[in-house]
Amino acid sequence: MSEKMVKFSENGFWIKKEDDKYTIGLSEKGQDDLGQVSFIDLPEEGAITTADSLVGVEAAKAMTDLTSPLNGKIIAVNAALENKPENLNSTDDAVNWIAVLTDVDDEEFMCLRNLSGLE
């Protein structure tokens, strides 16, 4: 049985831990902060740190780079977002996920928030 837990970053991501994989997507707070997304610059697979941009986003309210909430290794990217960046505004985490990380320090994950910031 896999262990699932969801946390939230200060800059608007949800992070779902399943075993040793960490899936990152845009939370309701992130969607509210940005507005309707019209363009996304996706990351490449490989190492990433909390100082690195996870995604560049162009949206109704802002054009910004959002830094990674965790240090780790990107092993998968949601390439469908390139043609459908509006999926970031979905509440369905099956379509609004951005990347999957491994090699994450579990203590770093546990320090993230339990609530999205809208509660």
UniProtKB/TrEMBL annotation:
Superkingdom per UniProt: Bacteria
Keywords: Lipoyl
Biological process, per Gene Ontology: glycine decarboxylation via glycine cleavage system; protein lipoylation
Record-linked Gene3D superfamilies: 2.40.50.100
Cellular component terms per the entry's GO annotation: cytosol; glycine cleavage complex
InterPro entries: GCV_H (IPR002930), GCV_H/Fam206 (IPR033753), Single_hybrid_motif (IPR011053)
Record carries keyword Nuclease: no
Cross-referenced PANTHER family: GLYCINE CLEAVAGE SYSTEM H PROTEIN, GLYCINE CLEAVAGE SYSTEM H PROTEIN-RELATED
Name of the protein in its database record: Glycine cleavage system h-protein
Organism the protein comes from: Trichococcus palustris
